[in-house]
């Protein structure tokens, strides 16, 4: 067997990146775009010692789980990996991914396949899109999505995962660039002006935000473009983000107002959030609500608890929990996000939430060692790389009754759970949440409880606050007399 050979194989599994996996002549082959259950013809791209990569040539016998992709760009586009797979099967794929990571990396042998909360309608769920701009062969500005593992733009103004307004905004920006001969930024030469357009929509409020990310501070005939964008129903905020660097980092630090405030607002349940172009906000609001409700259920708050929300962003989870807790402390590394978090607490009239700027692995140890702050419940929602060891160690030393771990990467989740479970915690519940339908990503929420707790603390969990204090007072009395 060698490169360029055509092989016929049955796809019997799928890898973590959504690629089909089949065996041929004792070798394992990875075939992108093939679906579990397909029989395919594929061309060998690369051979290794006992496995290889092959390109899908044709589907000889389609799997019963194969579906016609909704989007014509599904195969070349780097955004979606699972459009050809039935939605229920996608959820099953994600459940297995979580389970596999927990078994293989976490060493949890008795973990069952978790439930993954799916969407009723898995299309047009994203409230945020960042479209890169470039120039086509004829010299016209184009926008769309990057092809798989490249920065080649596939022209497309209507991604089916995003809102319909994206297309209206992008067509207006493209027409304006054409009319005024405004060049798109070119990553290879560092020349040109328009880098990206960021669009956000508050699903609960209908408010729209457009942020033009430029290698510069303004644009020819800006008022004309601004007026045109203002005609779009829901438009609330138009800004420019200045990024003068020759880098593929999307956003610069400086934000300039063009029209309206430099934020929009959105709501999740009864909490209102102010969102600026620079702050992190979950992209799938329908599923975010379900994710946070699960986190809240796992936190099982009675009203008196001290809760830490590490990696809190703009305080989304903190404020959600604050209504049910005694006190919530949020920690986040991005100063602007903390400003938003404080503002969000204020506009919601929440007084029992306090926020700190800094690294979780520095702030938490400091607060614990120097000021002796405690925790009844710790919620963490770290980025893909998971929690820093120093943060985990302090969490263990603070010995909260419960830890709620929200994760966007089940591999690092499994690694961190392994550590926590070696230090006296046990995994009580695991649930997946499909925040990113048609991609291989899955969010996981996990409840851990402290095995070392004394029986009286267990009693505390099942009583309401008054009962809790009554018992505590009785204990104090007893200690005094004995
Ligand atoms: N819980 C929030 C945000 C989760 S995203 C929400 O649901 O909206 C993860 C957040 O962790 C980001 O806001 C990121 O800026 C922040 N972050 C990354 N590294 C960090 C660190 N070492 N310490 C604290 N926060 C960090």
Features:
single chain; 482 residues; alpha/beta; 8-stranded mixed sheet; 7-stranded mixed sheet; 11 helices; binds S-adenosyl-L-homocysteine
Please provide a written account of the structure:
The chain is of the alpha/beta class and 482 residues long. Helix content is 28%, strand content 29%. The protein contains 11 helices and 22 strands. The strands form 4 sheets. An 8-stranded mixed beta sheet has the order 6-21-22-20-19-16-17-18, with helices on both faces. A 7-stranded mixed beta sheet has the order 9-8-7-10-11-12-13. Strands 1-2-3-5-4 form a 5-stranded mixed barrel. α7 packs parallel to α8. The longest helix has 18 residues, at 87-104. Residues 454-466 have low confidence and may be disordered. S-adenosyl-L-homocysteine binds at residues 280, 282, 311-313, 316-317, 331-334, 337, 359-361, 381, 383, 388.
